């Protein structure tokens, strides 16, 4: 019997096609050459945020582009690495015949197939696998252990649980990114509790939970700690709504905890007692990050914890831990790979400096260093012995000057990632260019973002210096107060491999300070030269020409952030028409109106989300969009005081298979 | 500088109104603190009109206050925890007599006067000692009570622990919020951090009384 015959059935449940990507490197799968899949009925039962697929006939689903994996912003690259970023549209494809002529894929028993598929990690590959046929779909759903949900409202926990019965690890993202900058009111939503409630019955063996921009309460944390007995890893990034009491519950009840990673959260810090709640029997901790918590923990408890957890490889303490205390900690865990120090300033060192210098030279596995609060030339040299091995150095809490940085960097030949404050100035960036030829990522944060009189900081010349010395740069986040088109063009020439280019000229609408022209040509140069560009954030005085460039050249662009830019609706239209791979578009304070919004009518379902605030969009246009596209949630956030009811000041549009939100607060109107 | 250019843009855009862009509708205006703020989260926004800032800049003290208070919501896009860090920075200029340019330090980085003097010493040494780097000057120097809070008398040793016979008196002074020049060290540290606007290391080879005279002269002229 022709083995193909069995498989070429009518497929009556298919995942959203836009999550399919076939990579010949990662899977051995080949499409069926002679038997097209005909699809009668399509449900979208998809773990990641995706919309329903339009039915198609007599076509094989094959997408021949592979999106690359987006790197994460967290300091721990492993946390979100492997998170897959893009979804391709479905292209119809001709049937491909195997060159040998015999595409005999022997029929595997399900168990074997599951075993094989269990080795497939990438979400994109998994989505592709699930689209092949019913057997593969089932094998994939049974073998999947990790699910990534980029927008918690794009799908419901019930749908996820129904499709994937054996999940051990969940990554969940909630609020729109602009909530980091206070543009989203409190109580907007993204509550994790409904998810936990479903998971407690569906996934009692859940081991890992990674949340970003979710609302988390102490009750939820307690629920998590008590209902999931094998729970191992909790990571909270930019979440809010909980206090250190919730951490107490985690520390107390999670007997097998390997990871507790608390970053940049709106946490109510009621004291450091939570750390003392780890029982003496807990020895499994591998990752502990409480750098962003302000209260002092019991050093005694911390020291004991660190001594008994022999597998500890990531330790990031908060500012209250002194140099003396750090030295004691490091003596217990020289195997650390990532360290976040406490304060690097203290009144009197208890012993000779040389002893401190040894403290770092024994840490032979150390590749990431952060913290370094209050670091000054007095004590910074103690880290020199570890510098040669460092690949990631986060100095964004240390107000270093240029000479201090230069001295430090002369020891750091292996750096791949560097985060700085702009106190280092252009001279400091020259040192970066000369000392770190392997640099791939640079982030320069403003030490004083709101003082407009300060002429400190970095300028275009610092950026150019770095680009000259670091041709491998692919990720840049740069805050500055002046920039020129010529400089950015030079930078693009020097570093054509940019995948993430985020330039923030801090004064809104500021032109090229030398020529007084708009900054259009700067971003034009970037998109023309850097063909791998996935993420772009633009600033400065920009006309529609910038967007014309972006739409025309940025063919791999997935995320675009726009503020105070553009001249007319055309700007947004260019981008929506031209950027095929666009997934996230966030816009604030731009003159884009209804025509622009509606020009993307057919596009938004292929994107994760659209944010538009303080633009020129009216409620009527939003209603039109909502009516035409029932698979989108079109949400408008109402202002507190009256305002003009016909204007839609904050619009958030996203695709979903879960229908309108049931938990929307009164100020969120779903149209 | 940037304000002037922004002003030009505004006037360009008003002519653009003729092309039907209707940007007046979306103009953002800024006001002095205490004014009723129409500029809340709900209002339409477009490009900023900074004309009002330029007018205010002509007033002496009000301008800085108004610039500080009037901030665009969520701009620049810096996360909250970084903003909170930034609020805690207290950068002040440090002028050393005879030096060709100034330095800037962050008072928040230091816990007490002793640490401050260490850094001032470094800056001083950088300008006056010349070829000596901080590596040459031993750490212990910072902890020796070889200076008082009034005068700054560094005792320098080279790497062979020979005392370099330079005893030049420098007076540490600072300008406070009221514009008066004070001696560093009189007020509690935290108060000093809150009130200090800039620091000067004034060279004085005479005694303290002369320094005090120079001090009062200084208060009159703008240093």
UniProtKB/TrEMBL annotation, chain A:
GO terms for cellular component: nucleus; SCF ubiquitin ligase complex. Keywords: Auxin signaling pathway, Developmental protein, Nucleus, Ubl conjugation pathway. The keyword Secreted does not apply. Residues 17-26 have a biased composition (Low complexity). Residues 1-50 are annotated as: Disordered. One of its GO terms (biological process) is SCF-dependent proteasomal ubiquitin-dependent protein catabolic process. InterPro entries: COI1_F-box, F-box_dom, Leu-rich_rpt, Leu-rich_rpt_Cys-con_subtyp, LRR_dom_sf, Transp_inhibit. Its main location: nucleus. Residues 108-149 form the F-box domain. One of its GO terms (molecular function) is auxin binding. Pathway: Protein modification; protein ubiquitination. It is found in: Nucleus. SMART domains: FBOX, LRR_CC. PANTHER family: F-BOX DOMAIN, LEUCINE-RICH REPEAT DOMAIN SUPERFAMILY, F-BOX/TPR REPEAT PROTEIN POF3. This is F-box domain-containing protein. It comes from Ambrosia artemisiifolia (Common ragweed).
Automatic annotation (TrEMBL), chain B:
The keyword Cell inner membrane does not apply. Pfam families: AUX_IAA. One of its GO terms (cellular component) is nucleus. It comes from the Eukaryota. It is found in: Nucleus. Residues 89-204 form the PB1 domain. InterPro entries: AUX/IAA_dom (IPR033389), AUX_IAA (IPR003311), PB1-like (IPR053793). Keywords: Auxin signaling pathway, Nucleus, Repressor, Transcription, Transcription regulation. GO terms for biological process: auxin-activated signaling pathway; regulation of DNA-templated transcription. Signal peptide: none annotated. The keyword DNA-binding does not apply. Homodimers and heterodimers. Belongs to the Aux/IAA family. PANTHER family: AUXIN-RESPONSIVE PROTEIN IAA15, AUXIN-RESPONSIVE PROTEIN IAA17. Aux/IAA proteins are short-lived transcriptional factors that function as repressors of early auxin response genes at low auxin concentrations. This is Auxin-responsive protein.
């Amino acid at each position: 019997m022709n083995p193909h015959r069995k498989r070429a059935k009518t497929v009556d449940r298919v995942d959203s096609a836009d999550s399919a990507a076939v990579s010949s490197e990662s899977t051995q799968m080949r499409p069926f050459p002679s038997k097209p899949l005909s699809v009668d009925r399509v449900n979208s039962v998809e773990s990641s945020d995706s919309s329903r697929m339009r039915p198609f006939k007599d076509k094989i689903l094959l997408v021949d582009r592979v999106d690359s994996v987006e790197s994460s912003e967290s300091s721990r690259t492993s946390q979100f690495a492997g998170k897959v970023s893009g979804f391709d549209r479905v292209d119809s494809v001709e049937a491909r015949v195997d060159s040998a002529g015999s595409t005999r894929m022997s029929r595997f028993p399900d168990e074997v197939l599951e075993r094989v598929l269990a080795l497939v990690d990438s979400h994109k590959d998994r989505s592709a696998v699930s689209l092949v046929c019913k057997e593969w779909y089932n094998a994939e759903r049974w073998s999947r252990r990790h699910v990534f949900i980029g927008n918690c409202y794009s799908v419901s926990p019930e749908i996820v649980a129904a499709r994937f019965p054996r999940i051990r690890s969940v990554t969940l993202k909630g609020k729109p990114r602009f909530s980091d900058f206070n543009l989203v009111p409190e109580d907007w939503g993204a509550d994790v509790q409904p998810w936990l409630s479903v998971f407690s019955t569906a996934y009692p063996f859940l081991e890992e939970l990674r949340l970003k921009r979710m609302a988390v309460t102490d009750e939820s944390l307690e629920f998590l700690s008590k209902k999931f007995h094998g729970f191992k890893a909790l990571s909270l990034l930019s979440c809010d709504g909980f206090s250190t009491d919730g951490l107490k519950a985690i520390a107390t009840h999670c007997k097998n905890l390997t990871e507790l990673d608390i970053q940049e959260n709106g946490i109510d810090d009621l004291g450091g007692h939570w750390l003392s709640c780890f029982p003496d029997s807990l020895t499994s901790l591998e990752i502990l990050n409480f750098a962003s918590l302000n209260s002092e923990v019991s050093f005694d408890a911390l020291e004991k914890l660190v001594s008994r957890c022999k597998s500890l490889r990531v330790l990031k303490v908060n500012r209250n831990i002194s140099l003396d205390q750090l030295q004691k900690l490091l003596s217990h865990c020289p195997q650390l790979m990532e360290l976040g120090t406490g304060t690097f300033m203290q009144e009197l060192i208890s012993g000779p400096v040389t002893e401190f210098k040894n403290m770092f030279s024994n840490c032979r596995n150390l590749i990431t260093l952060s913290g370094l609060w209050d670091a000054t030339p007095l004590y910074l040299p103690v880290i020199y012995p570890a510098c040669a091995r460092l690949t990631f150095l986060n100095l964004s809490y240390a107000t270093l000057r240029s000479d201090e940085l230069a001295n430090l960097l002369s020891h750091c030949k292996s750096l791949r990632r560097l985060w700085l404050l702009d106190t280092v100035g252009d001279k400091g960036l020259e040192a970066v260019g000369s000392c770190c030829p392997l640099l791939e990522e640079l982030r320069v944060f403003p030490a004083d973002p709101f003082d407009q009189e300060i002429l400190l900081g970095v300028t275009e010349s610092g950026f150019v210096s770095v680009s000259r010395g670091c041709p491998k740069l692919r990720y840049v986040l740069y805050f500055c107060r002046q920039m020129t088109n010529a400089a950015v063009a030079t930078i693009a020439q020097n570093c054509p491999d940019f995948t993430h280019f985020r330039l923030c000229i801090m004064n809104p609408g500021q032109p090229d300070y030398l020529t007084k022209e708009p900054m259009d040509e700067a971003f034009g140069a970037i998109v023309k030269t850097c063909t791998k560009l996935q993420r772009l954030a633009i600033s400065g005085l920009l006309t529609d020409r910038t967007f014309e460039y972006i739409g025309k050249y940025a063919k791999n662009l997935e995320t675009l952030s726009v503020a105070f830019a553009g001249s007319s609706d055309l700007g947004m239209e260019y981008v929506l028409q031209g950027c095929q791979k666009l997934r996230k578009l966030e816009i604030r304070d731009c003159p884009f109106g209804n025509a622009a919004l509606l020009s993307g009518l057919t596009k938004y379902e292929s994107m994760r989300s659209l944010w538009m605030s303080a633009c020129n969009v009216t409620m009527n246009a939003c209603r039109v969009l909502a009516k035409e596209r029932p698979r989108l949630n079109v949400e408008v956030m109402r202002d507190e005081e009256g305002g003009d009811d016909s204007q839609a000041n904050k619009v958030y549009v996203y695709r979903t298979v879960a229908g309108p939100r049931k938990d929307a607060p009164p100020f969120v109107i779903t149209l | 500088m940037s304000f002037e250019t922004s002003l030009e843009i505004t006037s360009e855009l008003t002519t653009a109104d003729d092309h039907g862009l209707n940007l007046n509708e979306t103009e953002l205006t800024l006001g002095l603190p205490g004014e009723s703020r129409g500029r809340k989260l709900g209002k339409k926004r477009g490009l900023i009109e900074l004309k009002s800032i330029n007018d205010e800049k002509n007033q002496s003290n009000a301008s800085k206050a108004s610039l500080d208070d009037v901030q665009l919501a969520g701009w620049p896009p810096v996360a909250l925890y970084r903003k909170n860090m930034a609020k805690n920075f207290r950068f002040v200029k440090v002028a050393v007599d005879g030096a060709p340019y100034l330095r800037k330090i962050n008072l928040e980085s230091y816990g007490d006067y002793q640490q401050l003097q260490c850094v001032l010493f470094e800056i001083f040494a950088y300008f006056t000692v010349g070829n000596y780097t901080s590596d040459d000057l031993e750490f212990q120097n910072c902890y020796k009570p070889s200076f008082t809070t009034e005068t700054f008398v560094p005792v320098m040793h080279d790497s062979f622990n020979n005392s370099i016979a330079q005893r030049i008196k420098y007076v540490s002074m600072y300008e406070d919020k009221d514009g008066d020049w004070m001696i560093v060290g009189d007020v509690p540290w935290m108060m000093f951090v809150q009130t200090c606007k800039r620091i000067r290391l004034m060279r004085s080879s005479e005694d303290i009384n002369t320094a005090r005279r120079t001090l009062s002269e200084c208060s009159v002229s703008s240093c």
